[in-house]
Structure formats: C-alpha cells, structure tokens
Specification:
- The chain has 239 residues and is an alpha+beta fold.
- The protein is 18% helix and 37% strand.
- It is built from 5 helices and 19 strands.
- Strands 2-9-5-6-7 form a 5-stranded antiparallel sheet.
- Helix 2 packs across helix 3.
Length: 239
C-alpha cells in the first residue's frame, strides 16, 4: 500500500466518505480500483450532488464517449433509483427528442441513450433524495472542444472548464445570437450580455460539472467555452 494511496483514503474520509464505504462494500471496491488507476497516471474528480435533481455534466471521462452505467456506478451510497435525462439533437439537426437512462429494480434500462459525453448536459435524479458524491476518473475534456448549438431546440451542454466563469464572459462574442441561458439556479434572457451585478445578489457563475440549457436565435456551429487565462480558483469538488 503506497503513501499516496493512504493519503487519498484519508482525504476522502475527511469529506464524509467513510460512512458510505462502511455501508456499501461495493463502493469501497470502486474507490480502491480508482486509486489503483491513479497510480498509473489517471486523475480523479469528485462532484458533490445535492438531494433531488442535479443539472450536471461529466467533464472527466476515460474516453470522450463512455458508457453511462459505468459513470453512474461511481455514486457513493448507491441509490435505489437513478434517472439520467438528456435532450438529444440529431447530427443533422432535423430531429430531437428526450432520452433517458435508468437504474430501477436492480437493473439498467435505457431509452435511446447508452453513453455520455463531456460536452453534453444531463438532469440527474436520485432516490432516495440524499446528498451524495460522484467519482470521475480519466481526462478532462479538451477546453478548445467545439459544440454545435442548434436554433429552435434546447441545447443541453456541459461546462467542462476547471475554472469557474461568470456567464457574461462564458458566452462573450455570442450574445447577439443567444435567446436564453438556463442554469439550475437562474435564467438569463435577451440578445445582449447581462448587466453587471455589483452587489452580488445573484451568482451567475458556471462551475466545473455544471449543465446549462442554451436557446439560440440562429445555429452556432463552433461554440467554444473561453479557455484563456482565468483568475478564478480551481477546485476539485463542486459545492
């Protein structure tokens, strides 16, 4: 057992993982496997999930496209029921429909969705409604990755930059083409950047692992999150 492995376990225990491990040996085995992978060069991200529905993305994956069930199995204190939803738009933009992946009654069921990607956003619902953590391993998505945004559809996209960013900066250069940006906690309308918020009454910030729903006036074929130098503090746990 390496020193790095011991330190990793101590850090997780400090974040409240010890009880989950004790209650669920399967979770302990998953964590053990993850730390072994870390020894071979992988990095780990821990996302904190609140009770109920979470608008999420999966910014760190072993490959750009990865089986949904393997990601959802990284939940601590494994739930009785999981629902993962996405709004899928066809590659040609001619069709769109809700898709879903579920864990119910001890089995996985998929409704036109089997895999996840870092560029897409999802609505994750877990029962019973308790605070949990999700462990992600692999590589963070390339910050220069382009995302196609389609007019006349809700575009569910993931925020995969490690630096937090205010929404007016995140969509800089695109505001004349954007009708709305919807976050789980807020929504902004209009064809111009939102005004400054000097008193801090609303936190219009995107954070690593967030999802937003973007409606655009016209197609944007090559949207990219700004990936220049950021002054915000990086964090491995979304709070």
């Amino acid at each position: 057992m390496t020193v790095k492995y011991i330190i990793s376990l101590l850090l997780l225990a400090a974040m409240g993982f010890s009880s989950a491990m004790a209650q669920n040996p399967r979770v302990f085995q998953k964590l053990d496997s993850i730390f072994e992978e870390n020894e071979r060069g992988y990095r780990t991200t821990v996302l904190k999930l609140k009770p109920g529905i979470n608008w999420v993305s999966f910014p760190r994956l072993p490959e750009p496209v990865w089986p949904a069930h393997e990601i959802l199995e990284q939940l601590t204190d494994y739930p009785n029921e999981i629902k993962l939803k996405h709004f899928k738009i066809s590659n040609d933009g001619l069709h769109a429909r809700p898709v879903e992946f579920r864990w119910e009654f001890g089995t996985w069921t998929y409704y036109f969705m089997t895999h996840v990607t870092a560029t897409q956003g999802y609505k994750l619902t877990i029962f019973p409604e308790e605070e949990r953590y999700m462990i992600l391993t692999g590589n963070v998505a390339d910050p220069t990755t382009s995302i196609k945004l389609w007019a006349n559809y809700d575009n569910w996209i993931g925020y995969f930059l490690e630096e937090p960013m205010r929404v007016e900066d995140a969509f800089e250069g695109y505001w004349d083409q954007i009708y709305s940006v919807k976050h789980q906690d807020w929504v902004i309308y209009g064809l111009q950047a939102p005004p400054p918020n000097p008193d801090g009454s609303m936190d219009f910030t995107l954070r690593y692992g967030d999802m937003v729903i973007v409606d655009v006036v016209s197609d944007i074929s090559d949207f990219q999150w700004p990936s220049g130098d950021g002054a915000a503090i990086k964090t491995a746990i979304r709070t």
